[in-house]
From TrEMBL:
EC number of this enzyme: 2.7.13.3
Coiled coil ranges: none
One matching Pfam family: PAS
Protein name (database record): histidine kinase
Keyword Magnesium part of the UniProt annotation: no
Catalysed reactions, as listed in the record: ATP + protein L-histidine = ADP + protein N-phospho-L-histidine
Transmembrane segments: 23-40, 46-63, 70-87, 93-112, 133-150, 170-194, 215-235, 255-276
Superkingdom to which the source organism belongs: Bacteria
InterPro entries: BphY/WalK/GraS-like, HATPase_C_sf, HisK_dim/P_dom, HisK_dim/P_sf, PAS, PAS-like_dom_sf, PAS_fold
Sample GO molecular function, one term: protein kinase activator activity
Originating species: Alkalibacterium kapii
GO biological process: osmosensory signaling via phosphorelay pathway; regulation of DNA-templated transcription
A single cellular component GO annotation: membrane
Length: 568
């Protein structure tokens, strides 16, 4: 993993180095191209001073506005363009430092402004603001430095140079420079919108810029041709010169006129290109927005109808065709109300639309192409697209699956209720059978228990004198147990007869009952030794005597059964 990351960063570093190397070579080439083109600059002679229009400055300005301030400075330095003041105005001597410093400042400020705009556009990094600030600084340079540097030429400049210059000429220098640089800046921005220039500089070309080259070439060509034709017509009308389309004598005046005409039509083409780009970008955004909303419209689960004021369908979402199982041509042009199984709803709904502009129906039933039933929740709303155009838009929620599930639940509930009734009836019959069984069993059990009790009573009365004390105790125990058994059977019979029966509760003493149960268990389990420890006197208990005694019997009998020794 670390090796892969190292290779990744190495590759990125190489890409950045290659990209920077390309920018560096392009910047130097632009500087060399600019220094070569200064010899084609236009000159205007004022007295003994020549004023130059150095249009080749736009090459490093292109670099600075494309790559940033560093490459712009490299372009004018290593390309040699910073020497243009000495080449074009050798008699200026040390005063040539002023336009040289101005050139460095121009390239630096616009390169810095472009880098700042790439991060975030602010008012202070706008090209017009930057150029205005530069113009003020250039004015200060010329006002403060130009005349003193001219005066140094007599003593410290090795060649022939001016030692003084009229202030009006300095002002012309300054005004010429400012006008030239404003024009060059505008031309540079026009060139940066041309696809072939951006490709040459390695910059991305926007889709909205695809027509810029043709617009630029057409307007500049048409403008120059128009100027030549105008010159020819002027010469013919005012100087009786013959009209010809071939014999143009190129003069300095004609070149000057065509140069500034070319700049003028370049700027006009730049304005046209700017508005064309904005128009194409707006169209592109509008097209993307339309495609995005169309995609959402086609992919939404809700059903959407667009109708005219009478309910005729004009457009539907894809979900409508999928649900109704119709083709689009079979739906468009039909009445929206023709799909609804409610009679006479059209007039009512249209009337409601006029009054409330909205109709809402929670449940309507429709039929598909195959005759299947669907259930919709519908909302119909009147929408004004313009003052003359109105639409009815219906948004439908299909809840057929929910309705089918609800119907199924209702069927299952009904089935469940039927089963509950059936099983309740069967349970009632079972309880009746159980009651009859309990009555029969209780009757059958009480008969032998009464017989045992009667036999024990007979023995106690007739054989009392012949029986010892232990036998008499046993007979009394038998008689007590059978009496308890008879009472328990009668209690069970009461429960069976009444279904639920409140216990015959009373305050009872638990100690005698426990002792009675223990004495009976001692007879039933003579081999088991049981010791009972009472931790104080037992409190009275509020309970059914028979049931309490039976509960104590069950507890102690379990102890007798499963333990040889129990300590209670």
């Amino acid at each position: 993993m670390m090796v892969q990351e190292q290779l990744y960063f190495t590759a990125n570093r190489k890409n950045r180095m290659a990209l920077n190397r390309r920018h560096l070579l392009t910047a130097i080439a632009a500087g060399l191209l600019g220094i070569g083109r200064i010899f084609f600059s236009f000159q205007i002679a004022i007295d003994t001073v020549s004023i130059n229009f150095v249009w080749s400055i736009l090459f490093p300005l292109l670099i600075s506005l494309s790559y940033g301030k560093v490459y712009g400075l490299i372009s004018i330095t290593f390309g040699g363009l910073f020497l243009y003041p000495y080449i074009m105005g050798p008699t200026n001597g040390w005063a040539s430092l002023v336009p040289m410093l101005s050139l460095y400042l121009l390239i630096f400020l616009h390169g810095y402004g472009q880098e700042s705009r790439n991060k975030e556009k602010q008012w202070f990094n706008h090209p017009v603001v930057i150029q205005s600030a530069y113009s003020v600084l250039r004015l200060l340079f010329y006002a403060v430095l130009f005349q003193p540097l001219i005066q140094l030429n007599g003593s410290y400049w090795p060649g022939e140079a001016l030692t003084s210059i009229d202030a009006s000429v300095v002002r012309v220098f300054l005004i010429r420079g400012l006008i030239m640089e404003w024009l060059l800046l505008a031309v540079t921005f026009v060139l940066l919108h041309l696809p072939f220039v951006k490709k040459a500089l390695g910059l991305a070309v926007k889709t909205s810029q695809r027509f810029n080259t043709r617009v630029f070439a057409s307007m500049v060509t048409f403008g120059l041709v128009f100027m030549l034709v105008s010159i020819q017509i002027q010469a013919h009308l005012f100087h009786d010169a013959p009209i010809t389309i071939i014999d143009y004598r190129f003069t300095k005046e004609l070149g000057f006129l065509l140069f500034f005409s070319g700049i003028l039509f370049t700027l006009l083409s730049g304005v046209t290109i700017h508005f064309l780009e904005r128009h194409l970008e707006s169209e592109s955004r509008l097209f993307k927005s339309a495609r995005r909303y169309q995609t959402l419209f086609e992919s939404m689960d809700d059903l959407v109808f667009e109708c005219d004021e009478q309910g005729t369908i004009l457009e539907v979402s894809a979900s409508v065709l999928k649900t109704l199982k119709y083709e689009q041509v079979e739906v468009l042009g039909k009445s929206f109300f023709s799909f609804i199984n409610k009679k006479n709803e059209k007039e009512n709904w249209l009337e409601d639309i006029k009054t409330n502009e909205t109709v809402k129906d929670e449940a309507i039933e429709i039929k598909t192409y195959d005759g299947d039933k669907r259930y919709w929740s519908m909302r119909l709303k009147k929408v004004a697209l313009s003052d003359q155009e109105t639409r009815l838009v219906s948004v439908v929620r299909d809840f057929t699956d929910y309705q089918y599930a609800l119907n199924q639940i209702q069927k299952l509930n009904q089935t469940l209720e039927d089963k509950v009734d059936e099983r309740t009836e069967r349970l009632h019959e079972t309880l009746l059978s159980l009651e009859r069984f309990v009555q029969m069993v209780s009757h059958d059990l009480k008969t032998p228990a009464r017989a045992i009790s009667a036999y024990a009573e007979v023995l106690l009365e007739d054989e009392r004198d012949s029986l010892n004390a232990k036998s008499l105790a046993y007979l009394k125990q038998i008689q007590g147990v059978t009496d308890d058994m008879i009472q328990l059977i009668e209690s069970l019979l009461s429960y069976a007869m009444l279904g639920t029966r409140e216990a015959d509760a009373e305050w009872i003493e638990p100690t005698p009952i426990i002792e009675t149960v223990l004495s009976r268990l001692e007879l039933a389990y003579p081999e088991t030794i049981c010791m009972v420890d009472y931790l104080g006197e037992l409190d009275r208990v509020y309970a059914d005597r028979i049931l309490f005694q039976q509960a104590i019997t069950n507890i102690l009998e379990n102890a007798y059964k499963y333990k040889n020794l129990i300590n209670l």
